Amino acid sequence: MADMVGPRLYSCCNCRNQIALHDDIISKSFQGRNGMAFLFSHAMNIMVGPKEDRQLMTGLHTVADVYCCDCREKSKIVKENW
Ligand SMILES: [Zn+2]
Questions:
Q1: 68, 14 Cβ separation under 8 angstroms
Q2: Centre of ligand 1 from the C-alpha of residue 74, in Å
């Protein structure tokens, strides 16, 4: 899970580790493996899970679940690897 903590920043809801910038968001209604997620082009302070290819409206994308590198909380942020 991730909370928006300001107009431009998302952080881990567990430890407030900053993990993504609003400017890097691709989609706020991405369908992740476990429900709705945010899709970002970049994220920071995270560990990246296994990559998988997903067919989206805009074509085939390679995405990965991300985890907070501090508390290991699974984030609802999904990272796209170009
Ligand atoms: Zn955390």
A1: yes
A2: 8
